[in-house]
Fold:
Amino acid sequence: PRAVTALSDAYLALGRSEEAAAMLARELKIARGPRKLEVQKRLGILKQDVLGDPAGALELLGPAVTADPADDDLRRRFVELSLALEQPHEAARLLGRALQATSDPEVRARIGAILGIVYLTAGDVRRAQAEFESVVEAGVDESAVLVSASSLVDVFAEAGEARKLADVLEVVVRLEPPGEARVAAARRFAQVCDEIGDPVRGTPAWEALIDSEWEDEALERLEVLHDRAGHQEKLAEVLERREIGRASCRERVYHPV
Structure:
């Protein structure tokens, strides 16, 4: 066993993929415990990345995912392979087993988010929604919550559930980093709040639109919202920013470049 291990490691280090795969396959028959799991991972990744054997890789990576549910890269590889080979139902089954195999809340959240995506790909919207909602409700891993909330946006929009749509858009606006995706979510959140007759709830959305092309409209709406709510400090900040904007416009008019 030690000789086979040394040879597989040496062949991998030398980039001799065929020989490495042969040694890893031989080692897999005799390895035990953590080393067997490591060999499964190595051989599966080698088959996927180098040897062009996605089916063989999937056969190895599936059991490894359930044995080591906390390995995010391994899980991502497994799901990508499963979907590429049009096996979403098998992927969902194994991810479900991985979910049951761990009690770590953050790992469970990350598995739940990707399991929801697999269910959506398989056309099972009901189960996908249940997984996404569970992740959002737990709120223990921001990346998983953001993926789940973003996925639920399409689910609730398609179902015409405006209030639930507002709930998940609020989460997306809170967690999405600054950029086009956050601006788009904020615009949509503000519009949905107006549609359901709750414009005050859209305050975070308008705040997220400051420093975007929608800033003028956002400041105008925020002035009204803060004034009605009696938020004097925030109102003063909005008025000051609007005045700075007007001064900048006057500067451009009087001193064109």
Q: What stands out?
A: The radius of gyration is 26 Å. The chain has a mean pLDDT of 91.
